[in-house]
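Sequence design from tokenized structure. All designs in this work follow the same two-part layout: the structure record, then the generated sequence. An example of the structure record is given first.
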């Protein structure tokens, strides 16, 4: 399958999705259970995005395939929550299901590896950027 979403675009989506997951249930007056679930998902998304080896990662410790697996698990969790949480309004149920499908889709359609800059290649091999010819 061809990747339709670059890792760079995926990073933009991550940093837009995390605050959305925090704000949406509060703004729409959803149940405490939905608020807790989406708060956990939003915080987790922000944390593992900062740890991911892609254009917007701060620490660059988590490989992109692992990040995408976490996205897929989060999406599946939101989908299951939308289908199984008791006493949900139809809007709450639809919202959780839609967010879950969005996360699953993003995970499936994103490139598996971020482009690596020449300086990063040397750093991963234990060579400083100044020691590489032409850098």
């Amino acid at each position: 399958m061809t990747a339709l979403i670059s890792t760079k675009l995926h990073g933009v989506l991550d940093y837009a999705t995390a605050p959305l997951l925090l704000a949406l249930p509060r703004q729409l007056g959803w149940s405490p259970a939905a608020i807790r679930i989406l708060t956990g998902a939003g915080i987790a998304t922000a944390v593992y995005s900062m740890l991911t080896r892609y254009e917007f990662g701060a620490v660059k410790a988590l490989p992109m395939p692992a990040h995408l697996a976490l996205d897929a698990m989060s999406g599946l969790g939101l989908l299951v929550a939308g289908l199984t949480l008791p006493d949900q309004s139809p809007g709450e149920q639809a919202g959780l299901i839609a967010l879950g499908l969005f996360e699953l889709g993003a995970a499936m359609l994103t490139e598996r590896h971020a482009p690596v800059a020449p300086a990063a290649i040397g750093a991963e091999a234990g060579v400083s950027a100044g020691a590489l010819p032409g850098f």
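The radius of gyration is 18 Å. We note this feature because it recurs in several other targets discussed in the main text.
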